[in-house]
Amino acid sequence: MGVATETKPMVINMGPQHPATHGVLRLVVELDGEVVRSVSPEIGYLHTGFEKSGESLRYQQACTLTDRMDYLSPHANNLAYVLAVEKLMGLEVPPRARLLRILFAELGRIASHLVWLGTHAMDIGAQGLFFYCFREREKILDMVEASAGVRLNPSYFRIGGVMRDVPEGFETMVREFVDELPQWMASYRALLDRNPIWRERLVGNAVIDAQTCARYGVTGPILRAAGVNRDLRKVSPYLGYETFEFDVPVFTHGDSYDRYQVRLAEMMESRRIVYQVLERLEPGPVAVDDWKVAPPPKEYLGRDMEALIHHFKLFTQGFHVPAGEAYAGVEGPRGEIGFYVVSDGGAKPYRFRPRTPSFFNLQALPTMTVGSLVADVITAIGSIDIVLGDVDR
Amino acid sequence: MAEGLEAFEGAGGASAALGGDAFFLTTLKTMVRWAERNSLWPATFGLACCAIEMMATAGLRFDISRFGAEVFRASPRQADLMIVSGRVSQKMAPVVRNVYDQMPHPKWVIAMGACASCGGIFDNYAIVQGVDRVVPVDVYVPGCPPTPDGLLYGIMKLQDKIRAGADRVFEERAV
Known about the structure:
The structure holds 2 protein chains of 2 kinds. Chain A is mainly alpha-helical.
């Protein structure tokens, strides 16, 4: 007679303090041996109350909140927000401002993907990639610092244009960076592409198909790795993306490895766009010529009373936005970042509602990982590329 | 601080010049503090934007290991420095305290950035207005987020504090 044994599932708790959850995500994982039976993400550990705070700040001020949601691609957040407000106000920004916005949106995409690659590879065990990726990212942060004065959270895009013009020598900086990019990409690929551990961990991991993506509202590289050619820059172009030549990388397997391929290919496409922007960039104003919306140039303040009054009014009372509602969505590094702004005609948004991609993408995690091994959950989290500020808001 | 330890800390050249018979006179307390401040092991505990700058500080350009603080430990039980890097939500506050409680003595806390120091721009229902309401803080680093240089300066300030600090190594502090 054998000994009667009983098998019980084990529930383990991952996070919120866990090195591989990319922030303060908590997962309650039910395991049968090493096989995952269920995963339930518990979010909210970084809930910041952005929506409520947005309602109590003036339109220009609320822009600073958007940086801090998806802090790896602040420019994309800024962009979605200012586009929504500009839609409400019927503003048309000058061409140079538009090009600078595209430039920073694309550089931001490269920077964000670099962080993703570094941390994802570190989760898998390739610590070196982290150092390489952060080394390259520093160069983009230098450009952000040169333009806006800070490295992270720049709020460089303002309603009506951008904060200020880029300094002298900026274009050389950008050009040097994009010239060197392929060389670095080649070294990342040399380290990873045919690395047996990397392939073993990523190929066939966390598979999701196009229908499931659609059901969960998953966008961005995850959707494109599942074979759907949907990129807002192509589907509903903004800022004149339709005049730029670039391809949308699409892969078919929907696994972590294809998501890796999509993101690496996207970085090279962003590079193409950056080159085209540099060609088109011409001197000119970087904000609308309306002191009611964009502040007057600093040098006017000392000698022009009218400018001083406008400056004072703008920064103490803001401006009124016509009543109505508007939604603007942009293709961020993680998917569709959208802002739904409702105005009641006042100086503050009546409703400030972000549509953040990580929140939707994270919901697909359980379907991706049930049935796989517990170590694969780590790979899946890395490959979804979540930012908890973006999830919890 | 004892004379001997300054030479000890300075460079290998000093001890070579002194020859094989050299010896130091110091107190155990000074010696322990010297070891503590040069091997601050932070807990891997990223919260928000500041965590990205904390990662950048560990990167090649800023190289936190110059200050002996590059050993990020995934388990708080192996760490003696908690860098609260980002906003602490009401939901997160008990977890922060829990992580702090799990760290062995002696331990120190750096509040990195405006949110961790005072709530920053988020003066609302969701964010704890300063992590010093939850855990005792040794050094506050301003900025939103602070630059990696700022964080390194904070770590150096903490080292100064450990060097000069009162004897509170095994002392439990109330919040």
